[in-house]
Amino acid sequence: MKVAVFSCKPYDKRTLESACAESDHLELHFFESRLSSETVSLAKDYDAVSCFVNDDLSRGVIDQLAMYGIRAIALRCAGYNNVDLYCAKAHNIPVFHVPDYSPTSVAEHAVALIMALNRKTHRAYHRVKEGNFALEGLMGFNLEGKTVGCIGTGRIGAAFARIMNGFGCRVLCYDLNPDENLEAQGAEYVDLETLYNRSDIISLHCPLNASTHHLINQTSLAKMKDGVMIINTSRGALVNAQQAIDALYSGKIGYLGLDVYEQEGKLFFEDMSDHIIYDSVFQLLLTFPNVVVTGHQGYFTDIALEHIANTTCANLEQLQQSKDHKFVRELTASA
Ligand code: NAI
Fold first, then answer.
1. 264-290: per-residue pLDDT in tens?
2. Ligand 1 mean position, distance from CA 207 (Å)
3. Percentage of residues in the chain with pLDDT exceeding 90?
4. Ligand 1 test: best mutation among 153, 156, 238, most atoms within 8 Å of CB?
5. Contact, 268 vs 295, CB < 8 A?
6. How far apart are CA 251 and CA 278, in angstroms?
7. Between 280-287 and 241-250, two packed helices, what is the crossing angle to 10 degrees?
8. Domains of the chain and any CATH numbers
9. How far separated are the first and last CA of the chain, in Å rounded?
10. Phi and psi at residue 251, in whole multiples of 5°?
11. Looking at ligand 1, which atom is closest to the CA of residue 103?
12. Could you confirm whether 127 is annotated as catalytic?
């Protein structure tokens, strides 16, 4: 089976090649380009495509893939907000993802953002490099005893809640489907309003969909404590970035940690250091001393990459071998 692998960086190529080294069925071809209406023609003459978070799998692109006879879409990520599952289903193209490659990798990155913002590690690093050992402006707070709100307690949110529990924080959770095990481990489920009112830190771990788009906006922010810390390692469009900037100016948001950004597709995963960034909202965010942005690296650990590659190859193998197209990780249009 010939597979066109889009958005493929050298580290992806290494892990995928190693994962399918034993396979007699898979022939992977690697493209650095993102999948989009401009690049979809690269998928001609292939049997399947493998895609990542910022690839465009909207209706027009999937229609084109179906015309080329593509038999499966293998996502190398957990989130699937970039895929029109209804369109894929209409064309009978199975879509599968890698839901649990390493929830702790993202949860730990959320904690890293909290720690950096709280203890101002990003600023201290530069000061010390320049021989400036003054502490003024670097004061943090003890996490122990603080209230942490966790929105979405699936695989990543639950891992995050457990870590914060270990710090001695009071963990308030909100999810459409509460997790009894997590409750037994000390987390407390509350309604969203209560979570907003009481949390010192709020971390987002729900998927992006119509009901969560711009969940963090001026209305929700107004319900939060002054100086709240917001952490987003889920999907950029959960936060209305312009309204977050207004809240940074007013002091409503005291700290903002982002691993994802609504318009990240034009920026992230590329070296843009030689280019002018034509996104004034993003540029403005970078000017705040109490904002830390990372470029969608929450997932980026050795274990996670290995699991992503292994699961992707296993799914493609299964596609090759099964007649009824039943996948362990197949997504349905109602998912
Ligand atoms: P999951 O599917 O295990 O958990 C998501 C949870 O959110 C579920 O418990 C669900 O009931 C809950 N939920 C759905 N709608 C909600 C709503 N309106 N309000 C509150 N909760 C809601 O997903 P997982 O693996 O925990 O991943 C969460 C998100 O993390 C993904 O959707 C993806 O966007 C993001 N992610 C980010 C990565 C990164 O590198 N920064 C890597 C992997 C995932």
1. 999 999 999 999 999 999 999 999 999
2. 4
3. 91
4. 156
5. yes
6. 26
7. 30
8. 2-101+302-331 (3.40.50.720), 103-293 (3.40.50.720)
9. 27
10. 90, -5
11. 25
12. no
